[in-house]
Predict the structure of TetR family transcriptional regulator.
Amino acid sequence: MVKKQLIMDKALELFAEQGFEATSVQQITEQCGISKGAFYLSFKSKDELISEMIDHFMIGIITNIDQVVKNTNNEELLYVFYYETFQSFDKHSDFTKVLIKEQTHTINKELLLKISYYNSLLERTILSIIESIYGDKIKQTKYDLLYCIKSFTGIYSELKLFYNVPFNLQSLAESFVEKTHLLAKHTTIPLISEEMVQAIKHPLNEDVTEEKLLEIIEKTIVEMKDSIEKDSLVLLKEELVEPALSPAIIKGLIENIRNQPECRWIAYLLQNFYSF
């Protein structure tokens, strides 16, 4: 097992039992069977460890949902979104439970901003689903619907994580799809306006710049072994520096890297950068 992954896995066990604040680096290293020096070769501090854990889990959830949604037709789109969201919560339930418990206690402002940033990316995916399915029919109430959908997923996470209520995910997704369609059809008085949404726009939720993409790609290329995925990433980097490829080729290169674990986030960012 990669040492950083081992540290994150063992730290999660301790965080689940004791919380972030009560867990020391010493306890984490003892749980891993490594020295403190080995820990600090992987992470500069406990806060950096927590930050990378948030990145690891949230990137996994967001890229998985985004990929599935983008490969689904409109008729199944809402169902697939709910189903994949619930599956992701189940897969990462331990970490999700820790985050929910800790957000109001010991997580510092920087980490809270990071969680809020990923939440805003998920909102972007939900909004794209709403617009794809309902179009202009719900133009005035689409933000109300966005927050209703988020509330439905919140109901599931609360009942599952804290009360361990058993659910059939298929039936649950179908139930929420039905409720969402009813709200979309019958809601006529908007509560949340676009101006209100812009006013509370997350400070980190700006489109990723070319410079930031290049920074992330260059770092990943250095860490990757020679492969088709690495060659594709090199070509995508060159395209950012000096555009020459057709959209079809760029899409193909992004598809080449999408299933490589260390490239999933880059694929997601590039897809949004090129508006695919």
Q: What stands out?
A: The two ends are 35 Å apart (CA to CA).
